[in-house]
């Protein structure tokens, strides 16, 4: 639809549109996280995570069971499984740690702003960035732009509704 009315268009040919094949290395992870607070000191968390790591390595306990019992995030119900993670989607220290691990190797405890973790890499793959993920990325960019516009409108509305009176006190 345009100011001149409705139009029906047919694309006969596309030129110059080449899709680049993009391959990304993804890593399948699981982790156990313990969040630090005023009650639990850092030393206690490190001891617990080191003990968990030892129990998993010697085979007396499984990563899944320990995660379900002790991990303090939403992935605990799935045995700490974070699924397939792409580069750049996690904190840099987290990413550098799992990049340095071999498959089924368990990291030593690491600290991030989210808490203390031990990480296990369960698999790696090269994944082609498909049309579907490109569409998803475009959709997320649009959602983020729209969200930002709504936020700016809300801030403007708050400023317009606010009343500030500045009074100078004279001696």
Give a description of the structure:
It is built from 4 helices and 4 strands. A 4-stranded antiparallel β-sheet has the order 2-1-4-3. With 171 residues, the chain is α+β, with helices and mostly antiparallel strands. Helix content is 37%, strand content 20%.
Short description:
The protein has 171 residues and is an alpha+beta fold. It has helices at 42-57, 63-70, 92-99, 131-161, and strands at 23-34, 81-85, 110-112, 115-128.
Mean pLDDT rating = 88
Q: What is the SS-derived class?
A: alpha+beta
Number of helices: 4
The total strand number stands at 4
Helical amount among residues, as a percent range?
A: 25-40%
Order of helices and strands: EHHEHEEH
Shape: flat
User: In terms of per-residue confidence, which ranges show pLDDT below 50 for 5 or more consecutive residues?
Assistant: none
What key attributes describe this structure?
alpha+beta, 37% helix, 171 residues, four-stranded antiparallel β-sheet
Write the layout of secondary structure elements.
Layout: E1 23-34, H1 42-57, H2 63-70, E2 81-85, H3 92-99, E3 110-112, E4 115-128, H4 131-161
Antiparallel strand pairs: 1-2, 1-4, 3-4
